[in-house]
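Hi everyone, sorry if this is the wrong subforum. Our group has a chain we'd like a structural model of before ordering constructs, and none of us has done structure prediction before. Sequence below.
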Amino acid sequence: MPNLLIVDDEQSYRQLLSLVFGDAGYNIKTAANGREALELLKAEPIDMIVSDVRMPDLDGIDMLRELRETMPDVGIVFMTAHASVEAAREAFKLGADDFIEKPFDVDELKLIVKKALDKQELIVENRAFKRAQRERGSIKNIVGNSSKMQAIYQMIETVAEVQSTVLITGESGTGKELVARAIHDRGPRAEKPFISINCGAFTETLLESELFGYIKGAFTGANTNRKGLFEAADKGTIFLDEIGEMTPAMQVKLLRVLQERRVRPVGAHEELPVDARVIAATNRDLKQMSVDGTFREDLFYRISVIPISLPPLRERPEDIPELVSHFVEKFCKLAGRSVSVSPKTMGMLENYVWGGNVRELEHTIERAVALERENEIQPERLPEHITNYNPDRIKAEFSLPDDGLNLAAHLDNLEKTYVIEALKITAGNQTKAADLLQMQVRSLRHLLDKHSIRTLSAKIRSGE
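Answer:
Right subforum, don't worry. Here is the predicted structure as tokens:
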């Protein structure tokens, strides 16, 4: 139950309120003045204070003033027989929760105290939520002690303090959003919003509405004004994931926002100022795309003021044991269990080349923890493609012919083969096939057009 401190120089009020709140289930402490209350607060945990304003030695307002220097979160409700506008104004300025005039109805005072406690609880929960959000993206959640990861940690610390635009590149599953969150959380904008959006998950029209907002009547269904994500991220950070999937028209609009630091909601005539740090990410080669004309060169240079390239897991295999331990601990905690990894299983995990990078490893460990019923994860809990992986056999299968080969044509044919196989496995479902190939649906459709097999999905579904 809440710990309540009653402060009043009149013994009769201390006795009355001790009885009233004690019967209501509160743990009661009392003090005869502000000085006595401050001494008690040093030794006793208190959730809420009910205090008179005018008292000898140290009155309620001066007590609160000193209290806020060391205990800014303790709630307080004032009561006085000498109510005045100035006293109330000063109390609220210092953070008092409420003010009631003597004589008062005890039921009303109980309600006021209950509301003040509820408010304090919300404040504590909100602070804990924000702390959890920051910790989720903090550096300690980016696992690995290899030299490549140490360089990434150093870069995060360096760029967190500046406000330049950052472009994070790396294969899918390397942890680009974790790095973006860490940059935000270790910088001066940490207490402000971190807003994330996957640019490849929206059509051009929807992406514009999401980023810039819209006004009532801008289009069918726009029944109210809606704030865009750039506005929502004001004074904070907006993370533009998969920015390479953005259409040319959207690239132009984004470039203008980055240059002018202003957004125009869909349907509006006036622009709004925004102050959001931009961190972008992609698994595509934007430099080559700018050469090919599929990504604006001026936008590329605008978003890549500070580039960060994340290494794939195959380039830092020494981090695999630490990552495995991290994920085992994470999923055991969620499942309320405790398991370890057998040496043979760990050997297979270290031997495998993780095409899906850290994300694939995480999903593998999640599956293994869920399936393992003993105290040690055995190889049988791993997918077959991991337990059957043999790098020597694969090397032999992909050995270079004596007379060489046309690498571009070979890779092109290999790409087409995998696309067709994915469509066969998923019965022609392009969304599932894209997931299987760990790419966006839009990228898969590009490959279907590239290899002139756009109609293959329909043929597979029809059984041709």
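For your construct planning: Residues 314-394 form a domain with the Helicase, Ruva Protein; domain 3 fold (CATH 1.10.8.60). The first helix runs from residue 11 to 23.
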